[in-house]
Amino acid sequence: MLNKNAAAFAVAAALGLPCHAGAQTQEELRDLREQVKQLDKRVTDAEQAAIQASNRPAGENALNPAVSLILNGIYGNLSQDPANFKINGFVPTGGEVAPPDRGLSLGESELAIAANIDHYFRGTGIFSISSEDTISVEEAYIQTLALSHGFTIKAGRFFSAVGYQNPIHAHAWDFTDAPLANKVFLGNQLSDDGIQLKWVAPTILYFDVGVEVGRGRNFPAGPAGGRDKNGFGSGNFFTHVGGDFGTGTAWQLGAAYLTTSPQDRAYDDVDSTGTPVTNSFTGTSKLWALDGILKWAPNFNPTETSFKLQGEYFHRKENGDLTFDTAGAVGTRPGGYGSAQSGWYLQGVYQFVPLWRVGYRYDRLNAGTTNIALVDSGALPAADFPILAKYNPTRNTVMVDWSPSEFSRVRLQYAQDKSRSDATDNQVFLQYIVSLGAHGAHKF
Amino acid sequence: MKSILKFAAASSLALVALPAAAALNVFTCEPEWAALAQEIGGDKVAVYSATTAPQDPHRIEARPSLIARIRSADLLICSGSELEIGWIPLLLTQSGNDKIQLGSPGNFEASQYVAKLEIPKVIDRALGDIHPGGNPHVHTDPRNIAKIAAALEDRLVQLDPGNADTYRSRGKSFLDRWQSALARWEKEAAPLKGVSIVVYHMDFSYFINWSGMREVGSLEPKPGIPPTPTHLAELVDQMKRAPAKVIVYSPYNSPQAAEFLSSRTGIPAVMMPFTVGGTDKAKDLFGLFDDTIQRLLGVLK
């Protein structure tokens, strides 16, 4: 107010109003007061107008949702043909697990649209357009805003909260491709149609628990697209705990338990004579996932340097029946099946100067035990199930990337991939990933 | 499901609970708003600042400890104008807290209460990481602090009418002290008028506007883009032709670029406190402006 009055006097003076000399009678003084009052009001009004004007312009368009488009392209140089990619020792998932093509290719373009629907819900749709011109719904979900006490409900199609990396979009990954464990246990990246309920505890130490029920439209559930039945095809329980160490290190530990009952979950293989066969599994599949993440930056300020350590461990148990050659090419044979397998990876990414990062990742899968009754009883030779023959795949990956802004990244990656039991694949990828439009916010 | 929730509820009791003594849990995006909330709220508020002075408020990770804090907040105070767009939206959706969502009384955006500067005429990412709503670093103009304090006082009264008297009297006391400090700062900062300044980022625009200084360049080639050798070389040339009086940077900026330019041109480089806690003397909002002005006057001597 002091300022405003001072300004009003200044304006009055500038306008040549009789401020002191002539103001002798009461009437003149009253007039003067009135003038000052009016000027004061005008200054206040002008200030308000300036605030209004400086806020965002309104308009029909202003309510458009946040739209962003992710573009990425890749050059691949691989010593093995990606079309023949397989991970020996493990049941094929039917997911997009193969490495990128040889030569130049367009990666998946991703269109994301998100906005608050009203004061109760937020909606997000993320659509992926593959280089083969097919469009798929990656995620399409609504999420509650108005539940209190730490509860959030999410419904629709979304990436399941199994492990650390699964819910994160591929463009935000630190390496070009998914860890081998994510490829064999989650079909690269597991999304399902379902409902998620999550609760965040009212504690200083971060703690959440959640449950997801879903259709079971993808591996490890089956058949692809989900079973024809009422109720649920998959269930997932998860929890996270996290916090800070000191003034620069943030950490989070997570655990998840995914349970499904696949029915006629099919995969392709060749029998001992080289004839293509389709086998199918019916039973139960239980997956445990443990994950840990540690992020360090001096004073939590990652602009100059930062370090990120990330690891996940998966363990899966499957029990049920494995039917050999469902199509009857060489003779359909049913039999029991049981397996206990695991896998893990550990990766570190270090930003050594602004914009530049280097990273290393080690992948390891343990084929564990697989019991096929048809083989154990001697009905069929083990060579009839070549993909399930015991083998422990490993992979070493290094990468360097450069992010000239928050919206673009260029990455060079080399991997020595021993997913196949019979050959080592040396892979080099040069990749760009850019984001157009709305400023995205990335999960921790 | 039920048993999991029961387990969760039971185990959460074993963990450290949030302070419940204060009437309002306040979560602020930046330390200056934490200081302001503390001035007005006194012991009726428990204030937590998501960031400290050495952190760049543009680039914060939505880490678990922040989700845990925002989950129990009754009031969220941020600069707004898209300063926190890279992390606050994520915290909001993860919080499961309806009180602080956009449009709720518990969501307070400081920059809405002042006239914003540098509203871009052209909005394009080729211009750097620009803020379509205008420059969000509104707290560097002391007059803005007064306006925001008045608005925050009203908001605290609205959220916690039971303690209205406290907020009103503390608010009045703060504004009285602030107005007299402002009058003093206006006198002290008078020599800064017309003084040319090179900034690191456009985060001192409001201070420059208030003090009448003249910004002649920035170490960032474009907002949000770290200094490049080419751009620094251009700045060295520019400073040789028309030297500025001072180069400033914030505690969250690396001093290297400012020191490089300083060593090549002889123009002093000074770290500004930028926010509360940025320097030893910037213990509160008063100290912030005292120290900012003194540091600038120091190089003019």
Walk me through this protein's architecture:
The complex is a heterodimer of chains A (444) and B (301). Chain A is mainly beta and 444 residues long. Helix content of chain A is 12%, strand content 48%. Chain A is built from 4 helices and 18 strands. In chain A, a hairpin with a 4-residue loop joins strand 3 (109-116) and strand 4. In chain A, helix 1 (2-14) packs across helix 2. The longest helix of chain A has 29 residues, at 26-54. Chain A is elongated, with a radius of gyration of 30 Å. Chain B has 2 domains: 19-184, Rossmann fold; 191-300, Rossmann fold, CATH 3.40.50.1980. Chain B has helices at residues 2-14, 31-41, 64-71, 88-95, 142-159, 164-188, 205-211, 229-241, 256-265, 285-300, and strands at 24-28, 45-49, 75-78, 107-109, 196-199, 214-218, 246-249, 269-271. Chain B is an alpha/beta fold. Chain B is 43% helix and 11% strand. Chain B is built from 10 helices and 8 strands. Chain B is globular. In chain B, 52% of the residues are buried. The chains are: A mainly beta (444), B alpha/beta (301).
